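> Could you send the Cytochrome P450 2A13-like prediction when you get a chance?

Sure thing. Input:
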Amino acid sequence: MDTAVAQTLFLAACLSCFLFFLIRRTMHQQDKLPPGPIPLPLIGNLLQMDPKEIGKTFMKMSEKHGPVFRLYFGSEKVVILNGYETVKEALINQAEVFSERGKMPSFDQIFHGFGINCSNGENWKQMRLYAIMTLKNFGMGKRSIEERIQEEAQFLMEKLRTTKGLPFDPTFFLYQATSNVICSIVFGNRFEYDDNDFLHLLEHLNDSIHLISSIWGQLFDMFTSIMKYLPGPHNRILYCLKSIEEFVLKKVKHNQETLDSNNPRDFIDSFLIKMEQEKQNSSSYFHLKNLVATVLSLFLAGTETTSTTLRYGFLILLKYPEIEEKLHEEIDRVLGPENSPRLEDRTKMPYTNAVIHEIQRFCDLLPLNLPHVVTQDIQFHGYTIHKGTKVIPSLHSVLWDPKEFSNPESFNPGHFLDENGCFKKNDAFMAFSAGKRVCLGESLGRTELFVFFVSILQNFTLKSDIQPNDIDISPEFSNFISIPQAYKLSVVPR
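Output:
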């Protein structure tokens, strides 16, 4: 090769490199993606996350990469939104763009895109609207549902008295109480606390939530195509969820056989009537798969969220008996020993209201929220998030945002009290999420928390065999759901 040809090839290579980097730089400027830590092949950023408290990991990462950054869960790119202002901008100010639900493999294997929580598009819109309207018809948000909760609270008090002041695990007592409220709506009846079939059902629910929140559940959701073929505890998730689905199917079959179209007894009856009305519409969303998936959504959410919050709350009170003493004083002064608590009493009980809010903030029930997906390309905080990208609006970073809550790692009812001891709202209180995907059972959850919490403290004093200083209120897991450490308490009649 002569010198002229070599020089020509060299110049051509230099020009090509220059053009390549020029084009790349231009594209980068036009399509600036969120920053983030360097991922490893196949496993992504898995090793850089604390498997027990991913929300805290995200907050630490945001200190370096900012409130909008990207991670790789295995090979999947996920954008993390951190902090109240950032999450608010996405879920409220840009609600439509951030409104779709991201994939949740653990639940998708049972929901298959139907129902409410795991669906999108027109299916989600119709199921959510129908559920809201029908639940209202059965009393949600009205005095009638509050009366059901008060009645269930009395059943719970009777059950707690049978413990005779001895230590017990409160998990299933609280599960049964909260589940009976939603069961009375969707199934038309409550269950006795010694009903073995009901206890078996709740055991499956408890097991599935624990497994989904564990490292096994995380691995399954990140590496589904591989993990579904491997042995391990994660395989029990499907078994537990299938058992709950079978319970729902039996209830649906019973309702089909005994249906009176003029007298709907519960949510299932109402849905079956709607199915009959639309049976000639081939494109109708009212079919058996959506019925089962919607009832499953309501049962799972209506049972787990409130019961776990209460269980975490009572553990916190064992840690801080001085807070319980103040609660007893306010409850005795406002209600006395005889008057059953009603939601309207909250305005007269600012300290109690503040403690319940602080329990919800501190326990951080859904630290990662449920995953969202953007519906279109969007410029957000100076970065491009492409259509179809999974987004995690971290609720942990909202409820523990130091700009919104002073010293957020400490349990302090003062976060919701002003200088005069009056209850103080805080817009960063997003315990039920926000925007188009806000929890549709928020009003039910608020009422249950207040009535059950106050009823127990009105009737009992909480005791523990462990000294307060030795009680650990850090979560066992804080991933899909924040689960408190297992503990036992005694309830002593007042």
